[in-house]
């Protein structure tokens, strides 16, 4: 006797195992035989939702309009380290809105990749959410699964078991007499999508008054960060920790804000607190390792990156960082093999350019200037806007006596990355040697603006002022 499994039970099994497409297909067959099966409708709705679900706490990409037409941003935080166009050090971990930093001009905004997998700029954050959220329904050959224009929203808002699946926030909030925290959070998310941040703040605050939920703290903190109020967001996270001690997401949010404010030591302390609660937290391990590397502790950084390797992280960024740590820790036998693996795993021209630049940096360290020259040229072949490669090529060209070529490379590097002091300082030295004192003084001033504590720049400016006073 053949034993058959109930189709709805099988669909639930697929759903629990995250085989969402198989679950939706079985529900579709059930609904063809019985279009009014509410259980199948509800399960298919959940499956389709999970297939295109966006974790709004984590994903927060700003479009060109939000970046360039933002009138609420007042101060620009100075960065001393360099690695991206905004001057932030590269940690190897992609976080929300930190893939490439905020571009300073519209030209940079158009050129800047807005996601981790594509260089296509997003013109509007809401547009991206809409495209992702409706993809599976719009491509259904039989038309959309749920025709929103034919729904009686007032009717469904009074059915709590169905209303959550259909996103009827406004009517449901009113039906609940404005006492349901869940619907207030949904309203706040809608206001946030529309750019009405103050209205979103009111909804999230009201939701917290009814029920203390971790996600509500995270959503409200996003609002304050978009309003350029990081201190308020920090206080909110700490308030959340009072109710949820040791919550990893809240600790991570505090660490991210400290890092964006260039308070690296405090960020590292909070990342260590994250590891005390979750010792497999990839972001915390990567960021602590990056901090050790930038504080001249490559041996300790190497331990953190090897831990990531043991955990199964296998990508270009990790092997690139491993190669750098091995080189500075004088473990030369592993350096080139790590970079070779990074090149094999690279998925974009920008990654290839960064790896070749680092190999060139290693070649400079072992005094193989011919290899270094070739590596920097390869970096520019993959990414023609690589400012660091232009700067280093200029130094190598100057060693060969090609003054004009060196000057052109330095000017290009200075225009591509104004936050870097090295191109300005090198250009100032070069101009001073060829007798162009005015250009030397101008470049030295720009170098001082980028790095006020640079002693060599201060000494050069002092010499130039003495010379001008003598004239």
TrEMBL record:
<dbReference type="GO" id="GO:0036064">
    <property type="term" value="C:ciliary basal body"/>
</dbReference>
<feature type="repeat" description="TPR">
    <location>
        <begin position="353"/>
        <end position="386"/>
    </location>
</feature>
<dbReference type="InterPro" id="IPR019734">
    <property type="entry name" value="TPR_rpt"/>
</dbReference>
<dbReference type="GO" id="GO:0097730">
    <property type="term" value="C:non-motile cilium"/>
</dbReference>
<keyword id="KW-0802">TPR repeat</keyword>
<protein>
    <submittedName>
        <fullName>Tetratricopeptide repeat domain 8</fullName>
    </submittedName>
</protein>
<dbReference type="InterPro" id="IPR028796">
    <property type="entry name" value="BBS8"/>
</dbReference>
<dbReference type="GO" id="GO:1905515">
    <property type="term" value="P:non-motile cilium assembly"/>
</dbReference>
<dbReference type="Pfam" id="PF13181">
    <property type="entry name" value="TPR_8"/>
</dbReference>
<feature type="repeat" description="TPR">
    <location>
        <begin position="316"/>
        <end position="349"/>
    </location>
</feature>
<dbReference type="GO" id="GO:0034464">
    <property type="term" value="C:BBSome"/>
</dbReference>
<feature type="region of interest" description="Disordered">
    <location>
        <begin position="96"/>
        <end position="118"/>
    </location>
</feature>
<dbReference type="InterPro" id="IPR011990">
    <property type="entry name" value="TPR-like_helical_dom_sf"/>
</dbReference>
